């Protein structure tokens, strides 16, 4: 039997788990009428937003679908559609579950912490396993269809192009979803806080604030759907790039099929271990929520470590065969297995470092809390200092990962390490997607006037959610950085292939071997150009959040002015208007920055081509891909870690330190948190798909030029 | 006659101008007794700080002097000492003039704006022309001594190594001076403002604030001495690197002497045009201070454009000879002249872009001012957005500069363009060093209770100083980015030379040609490692300022508590203690981050050597040099432009917009300004010498390994 069917089976298992978990969540108590009313408003808003977002993306998508078909092939266009639709589906279904689990979590939290955790985590696990499962299924089934049913050879350009197009479809959804969702959620959060907490002096999630439903909607469309699309993309793109590398490195040998199967097999094995891992999430006797979540993660990681050994054995028919790639490098399946372990270690270290930089008990967060005592300015200075500093250790871990895995098995070793990192996406996303559910549960508890202890329980869950959110972002960006290197390798190998076979690919006639030497000024030009993209992109995204937040402030002020009964609790605010306004703002603001990474590779290529010819243009384009990784990695880590640290410094003060809530230090910490919001939830995480979309557009451009 | 004597003559001319200007400044009225008393305290503090700073650096310097002598040669060690001592002298003399010109500017401002501008600008011009003149003299005289009196061949390794060591000496001073001065000035500024303006509610520069003298001292040691050392270094290092490239590219031909003379000749010509340019700084009938300053800059630029043509003709004996370098590239002296023009254009564009991003009339500053209305958080968000965005256009200008000059005359063309950019350092530094003088003049006017109109005049001068400070930083960083590319080229060319002649340089036996291809993972490792340095460095610098500021806050609070008479104006605060405390803090905090770029190249080289051998280590080290440029350029531009924009957004509100002084918007803008302070005056500008010191240490490491 074709082993791909086993991969598909594992993918289907994740869907089965999802269905079981959804039924289990939906079967629990949905609380009283008031709670259901509020949850209904959140559901309605989130669905309306996502419907509109996907409609907008669909317009861009249909256009690109046509271009891909016209310039490449029908199969590439279908691949693009598969990637886009599955990515959208993972986010949409995850959100549907999330907005139904929130009210049930609030209800369960009124019984016990364990019950609340149980429902929230199960809801998160649906999203997590859908992300990993659908991504795996998408790639595996389409690969199976192309090779088994359409009869293409495994290493045929048609197969490679179609898989890359699948990755592009996923990327396109993820950049829009990350940005649009990020602008919505932080526009609502920042705007709502400014006008509610600061101006009107009412607490967060107070039902009198017209932006409060929008804030809860934002948690779902940004932190749940946006993040799901992001990791779906990272997963799909990395697996595809690893398969492409395998096809190129082992072109014409029997090993090619094994090398292309291996990343899928890793993904399949880890979907199963992730499902098992979810059952390890149980509150211990010490009531540590973080401990419960980590139990699930550690179980998955350890099981994966064990299971990947026989999987490797099965794929390669042993552990000590010598696999030799075209350039002469050779390694054994055992080496590849060790690369996978290195990927797991890198994941663990990045999680640990992120927790250090964003966790309340450690120096970084405490130093921000300390500096809040002397005011807003010093809080922000220290937060920026931490955000800059927080990039160093993750970068060193990535550097070590590159060195170790390259020495084990060359570039293919790096690719396998990243694939293994991402194979854990199921359980990692589960930890993260749990966050918006508990955040919403707290909001519903507040708005529905549930007893204080319910809010305390949801607050405890929410605080952990903040850390897991930061941790997942660190993981997503770390893996994206390494994943982008694999994409860059695919670009250079593809280019090598096309220039070496320029009698077939006539566009490449006379281009000759393309060098990426740093002493070539066009390489430097490409590095600088790539380097500026995350900065420009980040600047536009931050401005967009500021604008959306200002619009919210205006709208809430207007409602307070025109309906004086709201503040007295006698009149119901018009929640829908704030949601609607933010929807329009987010959709409008997401277009330009999303197109920046899509169009930049084309601009750089054709501009340098016009100035200095094809060879220089390919050099500059390749260097640009690496430039965007080099600065993007630092920009993204600094933003997400810094934002998380600011957030928890505020929480640390709210826990009664440095004067607690209402003190001057607390006000300064609120400012820091506000600054960190778009840093960590809009600009920072969106850099991640931005890096990869730049790379994948370059790969597609090569394919189109070769066509 | 050896044309080098003409270069030396031009250098001496700048000293003569300096002496004349000092006499002229010192001859003017030094104001009343109270003013002189205050100025005396500032002088004392600044001298005490610099003496202590230089003593500390001297300890490090003597150690390195010994190492360079031991590992390289006596001449290299002497070169190191020359670079270090001249750089220190430029800063020290500039500061001596600056602290004497401040009180005279205050006195002159009580007569007329033109008189105040005259003295302040003349004082700044002393620093500016000393920087350019001493750097030029240092390089030219030492080159003359080595080749003419010591009899070394021009392209002898001894000459190259000694000149590189001279650059290293300058770099070492500049990183310490930039960081130490930056931490002092911003510690005083942020700490003084927090405790004075915010807590005690007294205005800036109020004599009751014990940190007020320290704040004024800081302007001199940071913005004057620190900046002077920075540009001295950029100038010296760039000229040296261009000469080294010339020696390598034209090795063994007659052109080598011309190519090594040419950068010195450009510097010499532009010192003269800068001196002439200073006389064009005159207040027009419209009373525009910025206009007056720009007249001086434009006159210098236009004169340079004209003069460089005959200079090029003289150096190369015509404009249409064909100069061919070792790799086959050939160009004419006319091409080199055009590269020089490109350098002038890049300078003009960067100045124009920086003014757009930091000037009050334009969108960026106004958008920050607007967002201050909704609070501290939105002010900071918008400021960060602008700081990110502000990197894009300068990067594009640099990219265009690279493409144009490379197409004209290869790497040597890029080097000539940067040399020409920096040849204008005399006049550009003059514009900048004028800032601290007027800033101090305002402080003295306030403390000495001079009539309000005097303060208004000095405030008008100071506002312009803020813009010219930002402009100079943009210029310094832009030229440093391009200059570092020249250093990187010197590294790769040196390495090529050593590996090709490994029978002489036995350390390089078996290393083979070193590749810097991006597909080499050690190159990627180097890029990431280099990339993290500006982030880590920036994080440490920001933390240091926060700590120093907190110490100031504590000290001032203590004085207010222990001497209750201070606030009533009955008791004199102990200014000296604040100065002394900051001195100790700044010196202590500057050591570790300063050593980061010195030691990192060694760590990377020996670590990768241990793991993967010499070839990989040289690749990683080279890539690290480029990595530090790629992220450093963006970090530095974003910090300096963002900080300038925050500062002027505050000024814009203080001019009566959005509620003016004392409004909530103003409070938010003060927060933004506080955040921007260490961004623009400590971390951002210090990244600039950091980039170059990394590069030059790598060059020295090569020389030592070859030895």
Automatic annotation (TrEMBL), chains A, B:
Transmembrane regions: 6-28, 49-70, 76-99, 119-146, 158-177, 235-253, 259-281, 293-316, 336-359, 380-404, 410-431, 474-492, 522-545, 591-612, 618-641
E.C. code: 7.1.3.1
Which chemical reaction does it catalyze? diphosphate + H2O + H(+)(in) = 2 phosphate + 2 H(+)(out)
Reported cofactor(s): Mg(2+)
- UniProt keywords, alphabetically: Cell membrane, Hydrogen ion transport, Hydrolase, Ion transport, Magnesium, Membrane, Translocase, Transmembrane, Transmembrane helix, Transport
Where would you say this protein principally sits, based on its record? membrane
Report the family membership.
Belongs to the H(+)-translocating pyrophosphatase (TC 3.A.10) family. K(+)-insensitive subfamily.
What is its quaternary makeup? Homodimer.
What is this protein's function per UniProt?
Proton pump that utilizes the energy of pyrophosphate hydrolysis as the driving force for proton movement across the membrane. Generates a proton motive force.
PANTHER family on file: K(+)-INSENSITIVE PYROPHOSPHATE-ENERGIZED PROTON PUMP
Task: State the protein's name.
Answer: K(+)-insensitive pyrophosphate-energized proton pump
Give the species this sequence originates from: Rhodobium gokarnense
């Amino acid at each position: 039997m074709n082993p791909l069917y086993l991969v598909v089976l594992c993918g289907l298992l994740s869907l089965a788990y999802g269905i079981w978990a959804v039924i289990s969540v939906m079967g629990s108590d949905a609380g009283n009428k008031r709670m259901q009313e509020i949850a209904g408003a959140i559901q309605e808003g989130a669905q309306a937003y996502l419907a509109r977002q996907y409609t907008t993306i669909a317009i861009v998508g249909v256009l690109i679908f046509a271009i891909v078909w016209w310039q490449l092939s029908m199969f590439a266009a279908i691949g693009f559609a598969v990637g886009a639709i599955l990515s959208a589906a993972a986010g949409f279904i995850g959100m549907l579950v999330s907005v139904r689990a929130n009210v049930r979590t609030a209800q369960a939290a009124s019984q016990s912490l364990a019950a609340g955790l149980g429902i929230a985590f199960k809801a998160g696990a649906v999203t997590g396993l859908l992300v990993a499962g659908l991504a795996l299924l998408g790639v595996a089934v389409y690969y199976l269809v192309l090779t088994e049913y359409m009869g293409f050879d495994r290493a045929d350009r048609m197969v490679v192009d179609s898989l890359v197009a699948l990755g592009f479809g996923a990327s396109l959804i993820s950049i829009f979803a990350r940005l649009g969702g990020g602008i919505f959620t932080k526009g609502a959060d920042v705007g709502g806080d400014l006008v509610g907490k600061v101006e009107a002096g009412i607490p967060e999630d107070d039902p009198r604030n017209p932006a409060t439903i929008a804030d809860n909607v934002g948690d779902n469309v940004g932190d749940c759907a946006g993040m799901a699309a992001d990791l779906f993309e990272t997963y799909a793109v990395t697996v595809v790039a690893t398969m492409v590398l395998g096809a190129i490195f082992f072109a014409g040998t029997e090993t090619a099929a094994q090398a292309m199967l291996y990343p899928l097999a890793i993904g399949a094995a880890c979907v199963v271990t992730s499902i098992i891992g979810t059952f390890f999430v149980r509150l211990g006797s010490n009531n540590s929520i973080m401990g419960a979540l980590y139990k699930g993660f550690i179980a998955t990681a350890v099981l994966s470590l064990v299971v990947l050994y026989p999987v490797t054995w099965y794929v390669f028919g042993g552990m000590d065969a010598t696999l030799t790639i075209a350039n002469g490098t050779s390694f054994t399946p055992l080496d590849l297995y060790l690369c996978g372990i290195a990927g797991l270690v890198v994941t663990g270290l990045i999680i640990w470092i992120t927790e250090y930089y964003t966790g309340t008990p450690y120096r970084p967060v405490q130093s921000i809390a300390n500096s809040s005592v002397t005011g807003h300015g010093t809080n922000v200075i220290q937060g920026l200092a931490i955000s800059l500093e927080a990039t160093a250790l993750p970068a060193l871990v990535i550097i070590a990962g590159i060195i170790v895995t390259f020495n084990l098995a060359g570039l293919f070793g790096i690719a396998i390490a990243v694939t293994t990192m991402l194979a854990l996406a199921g359980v990692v996303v589960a930890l993260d997607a749990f966050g918006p559910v508990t955040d919403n549960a707290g909001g519903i508890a507040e708005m529905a006037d549930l007893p204080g202890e319910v809010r305390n329980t949801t607050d405890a869950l929410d605080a952990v959610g903040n850390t897991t959110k930061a941790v997942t972002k660190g993981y997503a960006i770390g893996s994206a950085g390494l994943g982008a290197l694999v994409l860059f390798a695919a670009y250079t190998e593809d280019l090598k292939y096309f220039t070496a076979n320029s009698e077939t690919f006539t566009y490449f006639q006379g281009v000759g071997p393309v060098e990426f030497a740093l002493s070539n000024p066009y390489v430097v030009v490409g590095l600088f150009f790539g380097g500026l993209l995350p900065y420009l992109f980040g600047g536009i995204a931050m401005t967009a959040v500021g604008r959306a937040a200002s619009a919210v402030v205006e709208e809430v002020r207007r409602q307070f002015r025109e309906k004086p009964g709201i503040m007295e609790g006698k009149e119901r605010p018009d929640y829908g208007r704030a949601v609607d306004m933010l929807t329009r703002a987010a959709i409008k603001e997401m277009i330009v920055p999303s197109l920046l990474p899509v169009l930049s590779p084309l601009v750089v290529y054709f501009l340098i081509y016009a100035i200095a010819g094809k060879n220089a243009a390919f050099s500059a384009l390749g260097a640009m891909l690496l430039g965007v990784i080099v600065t993007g990695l630092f920009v993204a880590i600094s933003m997400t870690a810094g934002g998380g640290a600011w957030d928890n410094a505020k929480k640390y003060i709210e826990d009664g330190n440095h004067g607690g809530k209402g003190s001057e230090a607390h006000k300064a910490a609120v400012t820091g948190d506000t600054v960190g919001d778009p840093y960590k939830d809009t600009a920072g995480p969106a850099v991640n798909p931005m890096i990869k979309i730049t790379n994948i557009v370059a790969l597609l451009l090569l394919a189109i030029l070769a066509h």
